Each structure stands twice: as C-alpha cells, then as structure tokens.
Amino acid sequence: MQISPPYGYKEVVPYLKTQKVRLLAPGEVPEFVQKGNAIPISLTEFQPVARDYPIVFTGTQDALAPVAVLGLAGGENLFHSGGRWVNGVYIPAYARRYPFCMAKVNVNQVQQRDRLICVEKAWIDDTGEAMFDAKGEPSARWKDLERLLGEYEADLERSREMCSILSDYGLFEPFTMQANLRDENTPLQMTGMYRVVEKNLENLNAAQLKNLMRKAILPRIYLHLISLENFGRLLDRRAAGAGRSSHPQSS
C-alpha cells in the first residue's frame, strides 16, 4: 500500500482506533501553514475566507484550485503571530483538520477510488488524546473531526468541478500583484495566480449562466472578485508590522 500525503503533510499512515493523537490547541496551526503564504480552500469556505483573505486560483491552466492568500512573499504568513492564529480571523479547514486527512491510496500501483482517513505519523503519541473509548465508541471530538474530514473532502470535489467549469467557459486569466513599498527599492511582486474575468461572463449563453447559478458557482465568482480587495489589507498588515506604507497594483 502506498499513500500519497496531501500538500504540507510529511508522512501519513492509516488511522487506527487504538491510536492516541496529539491534537491542535485553540489557535494552533501546523508548521507548514505557519510558514506558508497560501492555503487551499473549498467551495463552502468562500464566504468566511473572503472577509479576510484574497481568494485566487493557482496551479496549471487546466488544473486550477482556489487558495486563500496568507502573505505576500514565500514563507510569509501575516495571520500567524506569537505562536497562534490572529484572533477573530477565520482559520481555513485545511489547517483545522490537521493532523488528520483523507489521503489517496495506491494498492499494487492502482489508485483506489475511496480515500482513507490518515494521520500525520509524528503526531501519534501515547500521551495524546484517545478518539475512541475501550468499547470502541467514538468521542465527541472524533465525531466533529470525522464530520469535518468527510464534508471537506466532498466539498473539494465540488471545488474541482467549479474550476473545471470556469476553465471550460474561458473565464480565467493569469494576473500579477505588485506593490511599491516605502524604503524598498525593489517592488514586491506576486505571480502564478489566476482570477475570473468578470467581463467574460457576458459571453456566456443562457445555459452556461444557468449552470453557474444551479451549481452555486456564480456567487463564488463574486466573492472571489470582491476578496481581491483584501490584497490591500494584506499590504497594510505587512506595512504595519514593518512600519512602512505600500501601494498595491494588479495587472
């Protein structure tokens, strides 16, 4: 059996009911999130994410996925400070589910259809928390985690479908974000991002527009477009931490 760990995870193994696991404390996120400037998000998260983060799409033109932008440079997370997430700001589910995940499994080099609940191996700890009692009954904490894992995985499939449809309809375009920071000679520039072109919606036929509405994609498009204003908030947050001002531009 071969298990492909999701982005950010190091070594995952199938979770067993008898295992005890160290769980995240309130406001704690895994190390790869602390030092990452973007994190994957799912379809139902667009609304809470759009309040604080820019939502962009990354990947290749034919395989894009939505992410929340956490920082403006590699290894920069502007929402993690003092060992915890900033109070009052939504923590994406990708981080909250850690150290658990749903992973792809290959048996004899054949990828299995169903994903397996796995756990980061390093977080299995005899001093950790038991998710099941001696009778094999799940704890309330495990029920919440299992529901989060299942709902998130199903939602990821809807996210993939959304991106496939948006790509097929010719609604994506690459863009860059550039900012001139005071006291820095070199402008800050972010590349490798895609956004929806609002004007291209005018080129869609009635059936395509109906499909976007039926699959609840159209509201996500506008949440995404509105969220791009949060690049300015990221720059303000970065400038406040460094005591300087900035001016964002996108192209």
Write the layout of secondary structure elements.
Elements lengths: L1 E3 L7 E3 L5 E2 L9 H4 L3 E3 L5 H5 L4 E6 L2 E7 L10 E2 L2 E2 L7 H4 L3 E8 L2 E2 L4 E5 L8 E2 L9 H29 L3 E10 L6 E9 L9 H9 L2 H11 L2 H13 L3 E5 L1
Antiparallel strand pairs: 1-9, 2-11, 3-12, 4-6, 5-6, 7-8, 9-10, 9-11, 13-14, 13-15
Q: Beta-sheet strand percentage?
A: 25-35%
Distance between the terminal alpha carbons, to the nearest Å?
46 Å
Radius of gyration: 20 Å
The helix/strand order is EEEHEHEEEEHEEEEHEEHHHE
Number of alpha- plus pi-helical segments: 7
Quaternary structure: single chain
Q: How would you state the average pLDDT, rounded? A: 90
- Work out the number of β strands: 15
Q: Structural class from helices and strands?
A: alpha+beta
Helix coverage percent: 25-40%
Spans where pLDDT lies below 50 across 5 or more residues: 243-247
Summarize the main sheet: 5 strands, antiparallel
Our count of domains comes out at 1
Overall outline:
globular
What does this structure look like?
The structure is a single chain. The chain has 251 residues and is α+β, with helices and mostly antiparallel strands. It has one domain. The chain is 30% helix and 27% strand. The protein has helices at residues 31-34, 46-50, 93-96, 140-168, 206-214, 217-227, 230-242, and strands at 2-4, 12-14, 20-21, 38-40, 55-60, 63-69, 80-81, 84-85, 100-107, 110-111, 116-120, 129-130, 172-181, 188-196, 246-250. The strands form five sheets. Strands 1, 2, 9, 10 and 11 form a five-stranded antiparallel beta sheet that branches. Strands 4-6-5 form a three-stranded antiparallel beta sheet. The chain has a three-stranded antiparallel beta sheet with strand order 14-13-15, covered by helices on one side. The termini are far apart. The model is unreliable at 243-247 (pLDDT under 50).
